[in-house]
Amino acid sequence: MEHLWWLFAFAAGFTTALYLSFNQYVKMPPALLMVYRGLLLSLFLLPFLFYFKPVPNMLFYILCVVQGSLVAYMDNRFFAISRQYGAEVSGTIQPFSLMPVFMIWLTVTPDQAVFFVHHPLSLVFIILALVGMSYAALMLCRAENMRYIIKKTWPLVIGVAVIDVLNKKIMNESSGMIVSALYYYMLIVSFTAGMANLSFLLIKRQWLSALFDKRNLCCGIVVVLIILASMLLKNYAMYLSFNPAYASAAILTAPLWVMLMNYFLLHDEADIIRLKWQPVVLLVVAAGVLIVATGKI
Hints:
The chain has helices spanning 5-26, 30-45, 58-85, 89-108, 110-118, 120-141, 146-172, 178-204, 214-240, 244-251, 254-264, 269-274, 277-295. By secondary structure, it is mainly α.
């Protein structure tokens, strides 16, 4: 089953694209969206609490709270920096964080580093695949002044890398109870992040009147359902993968899914015209190399 990490990771990339596309057209304020995807999701999950046996590992819960706090902080930093430097920032941070995720995980799991010492060819192909997917994703995002952006936002790169590594670590602390772990992870992380973001709005007194707007609530429910599917798929892919960078790499296909949906569902030919075939081919080839290379581990 471990070798099927890519199936769930690419599905997570597709649901991420659904989330991006939906918010692209409803244009919900980012600050409001951060509260909805945290508190609404936790409220949706809460009634099912007694159907899932608790994970018998206190570290699991501590790390979930830490993860939720980090997610809330990063949400607000993304919001602030995107407002200052443009929306393309969100498309450039994840690709730049991919190699740090890979290296950090090798540092915290020395046995995997030893494995690659004895299997250098696998290491070479995996690194080439990760670099190729990162480069292709950056080209698909079409961000300008990339060097300037990364110079200003490098703390976000580290933050995203830490969140992905912590995500994998939490799943590994599930004591083999992966179904319960998926449930409690989503519940605790969402609630923690949602409460932190709500506190931020209360302090700034932003969007409070919009929280209970009927249209916003309806859109928020749709967002919650998409995020629920995305979190389930991503977390299970993290659980199955040898290294969290593999799942993160597959999710980089989200911009491609967005463009294809714009073309086939909305008949937006402008997007398909701007889509260069070189990064698409590179993304597909690199993804195939990553699947084959990790399948031999």
